[in-house]
Amino acid sequence: MKKVLLTLCALVAVSGADQLVKLNIDGMMCPACVKNVKGSLNEVNGVKEASVYLKEGRAEVKASDGTKPEAMCDAVKKAGYGCKVAK
């Protein structure tokens, strides 16, 4: 019984893992741009939370493990902004 419970706890911990992705965003000029970028990021499947910083031209995205950073950049580009995954 203990083994089963420990295994279930381990599976929950692994499946609940998140990643923090940092993106460099080009072309944001105003708070409306921030809202557009944030909305685009939040529509990506697996994204849990997005924080967008106008002055720094960047975003930090909390997403489910396995969510592709490229999908996040594609959404930002589709909204009309430049995007690269920060290294």
pLDDT averaged over residues: 88
Total beta-strand segments: 4
Assign a percent range to the helix content. Answer: 40-55%
Q: Count of DSSP helices?
A: 3
Distance between the amino and carboxyl termini:
44 Å
What's the gyration radius in Å?
Answer: 16 Å
Content of β-strand:
25-35%
Structural class: alpha+beta
In this structure, how is the largest beta sheet organized?
A: 4 strands, antiparallel
Strand order of the largest sheet: 2-3-1-4
Morphology call: globular
Q: Helix-strand pattern, N to C?
A: HEHEEHE
What low-confidence regions span 5 or more consecutive residues with pLDDT below 50?
Answer: 4-13
Structure in words:
The protein contains three helices and four strands. The radius of gyration is 16 Å and the shape is globular. A hairpin with a 4-residue loop joins strand 2 and strand 3 (58-64). 41% of the residues lie in helices and 31% in strands. The chain has a four-stranded antiparallel β-sheet. By secondary structure, it is α+β, with helices and mostly antiparallel strands.
